[in-house]
Specification:
By secondary structure, the protein is α/β, with parallel strands linked by helices. The chain contains 14 helices and 13 strands.
Amino acid sequence: MIGQKGLPATFGGVERHVEELGSRLVAEGVEVTVYCRANYSMSGEGMPEYYKGMHLVTTPTVASKHLDAIVHSLTSTVHAIRSGHDVIHYHALGPGLVAPVARYASRAKVVLTVHGMDHERAKWSRPARTILGLAHWMSGHVPDAVVTVSRALAEHYESTFGVDAAYIPNGVATPTPGPLPERFVRDYGLRPGGYVLFVGRIVPEKRPDLLVEALAELPADVKVAIVGDSSFSDEYVDRLREDGLRDPRVVFPGYVYGPELGALYSNAAVFVQPSDLEGLPLTLLEAVSYGLPVVASDIAPHREVLDACTCGAHRMFRAGDASDLAAALCGALEDLEQSRRRAARESEELLLPYRWSTAVSELAELYRKITGRQ
């Protein structure tokens, strides 16, 4: 596995995707190596050699916005080829730029999972978007197999490249609800049922700024918790925090994971996913699993999950429209108790297509097919 920053997964959808799939592949008898970046470790103690049965290998990189992913992908690819792996599996378009090295300089089969249209992300400069545009083109021509996490992405690969991509969506883990930790009450003034929750990287395409703008039209006693932090997007984060300082109801707890994140989900009033661009966000699936009413922009990956909702607990708004977002949030908050009951009642049915056990079975079958080991 190449493209993730490292394990254990503390933040980042790709890291959690790789951890969930990789650990289950190990349980199925597959030997899994996960390539890690030394700068990912938050403890300062480095990566363990093995985690949940996966072999973790740290290879060199250059810790900069434009070089981190591609350099790490190259050094990891060289190591993987020398180690004689049967499959080299890239995650995201950028790391896939070096897929031709694996495809044409080794016997390994190459798989690329597309988690989103990275070349369209607003945080990148024009030259970076041009390079990622090349990565997008290569993703339709180089790999032995392409995997997408949403139907919309699979349709894109069929219509753009004539590629029959394997649609293997993310799964969702069993929720771990808990009481709101005291530090969130003390430091941020959060109270159970009294805050709107955003979880994710604070980057322009996820549009937390739209949520801050919409707050002006929400009830005065509602807070907004923006959980996450920068992903090579420091200028955007600084501007967002400056805007948030004008309204004390906006709080920034930073990255939160594990039981504390479960507690934030289970005690929120509403979950908001205001993105302009997504693949299939794990945070959206997690919010549904906690029985939270969801307010989401009407982009295709969100509709994929929420269009099946018949209970009225989840609401969509026009992407990029702060007033429409505010109206949807007010609607959810007006009858919150009933919205939560309805959301909890429909949670299991909405999540039926999103199971890690199904995803790992389909991925293992894909590996067997391309390596001729059926």
